[in-house]
Amino acid sequence: MNTSQGLPPDRAKAPMGAPLAGVRIADFTIHAAGPFCTHLLSQLGAQCIKVESGTRPDAFRKPHAVYGRMQAATFDQVSANKLSVRLNLKKPEGVELAKRLVVVSDVAAESFRPGVMQRLGLGFEALREVKPDVVLLSLSSCGQSGPDSHFTGYAPLFGAWGGLGWMSGYPDGPPVEMRHVMDHSSGLHAAMALIGALHQRRRTGRAQHVDLAAREVASAMLGEALVQAACGEEPVRPGNGDLAMAPHGVYATAQPDRWLTVAVRDDRQWQALVQALGHPAFATDPRYGTAEQRLRVKEELDALLGQWLAPLSADATAERLQQAGVAAHVSWSAQDLADDPHLHARGALTRVSGPGVEPRWAVGAPVRFSATAEVGIRRLTPELGQDEDYVFGELLGLSRAERDALETREVIL
Fold first, then answer.
1. pTM score, two decimals?
2. I want to staple 82 with a disulfide (CB 3.0 to 4.6 A). Which of 48, 108, 111, 326 is the partner?
3. pLDDT, tens digit, for every residue of 110-146?
């Protein structure tokens, strides 16, 4: 056990004015989607206690080829603010301690394959026996019911199986694999659902099992394309195009790897575009006079705009088009974002430090509240088992001797 890193639990608490201050989460989630959900709630002030074990640590504590990296992640993107304890859930005593943790919590969250929590003795009915008003989140690939519920999966599978990958890419190219966007989108949906369940419990006092399928999150994001398919129509993969706007896309400029995104919504913007780029004759060209006409020749327009933008500076042209009232911006790189004074002023990038830890950058909360305390990251990701003095000692009332005995029996492991 390591208790030397980060803020102690009392100082890691959110200010009492934070939106979810006073809410406690027993966090059994793993990988990215589930942990991102509880990470979001922790940024809003919830106290989140992450349960792992030394034999089965979270995937983000170690290299993981599925996420495209062969070294451990910073872990801050899914576990900053959280408290960490070790529990061996293969031991009956570990399961009993997990139940005691749920009893003193408002929410339990898990992202195992359906059936795992039941086999451990920690399913919804088992938890409701010890906490009648428990709110349990189960976030899985395909949900807790249905013919495909037994399938497991990672972010690329969610997007592929949910159809979002198939709808992403160019019409004459292959589907585009969706990775982290699916984990984050699923986690965001789960966080919203948990807040709704907590609100309902406050009104009714009833327990709630929140069943969220990441695959269905992807399908929901298809929107109109899914409705078209259900009606027997065949949706078209749009690439960078749009069903109602032309020109609409990402275009090369004179600067290598400096692409310009342009979207022309109406006739006024089309006229402003051609005037700003020095081609006023096209403002009255009958082939491009209306949005409907421009849509019919959108490939021709893409080629034309590509020719106009190829010798120009991306940044200067974006500014000129914006001043003319045309939606345009450089497709920013990660370095552009890291250097952006606006994001720094808003706290979207924040430096976090702790005792004995060098300050490092982390992604801050993208939300601000006018009538409450600041939200976001308050402490770095905990080391494994860092907060057991507080959780096992203060919250659950275990003595030092009891904890030592549990460690000897590999219950705390």
1. 0.88
2. 48
3. 999 999 999 999 999 999 999 999 999 999 988 899 8
User: Measuring CA to CA, which residue among 131, 149, 129, 127 is closest to residue 139?
Assistant: 149
- Number of domains composing the chain: 2
Residue-wise DSSP of 70-112:
SS---SHHHHTT-EEEE--TTSHHHHHHHHHHHHT-SEEEE-S
Beta bridge partners of 249: 262
Nearest CA to 381 out of 366, 363, 393 is that of 363
Q: Is 209:117 a contact under the CB 8 Å cutoff?
A: no
Residue 237, number of CB atoms within 10 A of its CB: 17
Integer Cα distance of 237 and 235 in angstroms: 7
Task: Report the C-alpha gap between 305 and 330 in whole angstroms.
Answer: 15
Count CB neighbours of 336 within 10 A.
Answer: 13
List alpha helices for 162-258, DSSP H: 180-204, 214-222, 224-230
Domain range for 30: 9-222+347-408
* Main-chain dihedrals φ then ψ at residue 28, nearest 5 degrees: -105, 10
Using an 8 Å Cβ cutoff, are 160 and 175 in contact? yes
Share of residues in the chain with pLDDT > 90 (%): 60
Helix (H) or strand (E) holding 275: helix 267-276
The tokens 């990296």 sit on which residue? 69
Residue for token digits 């399961």?
95
Residue with tokens 């803020």: 7
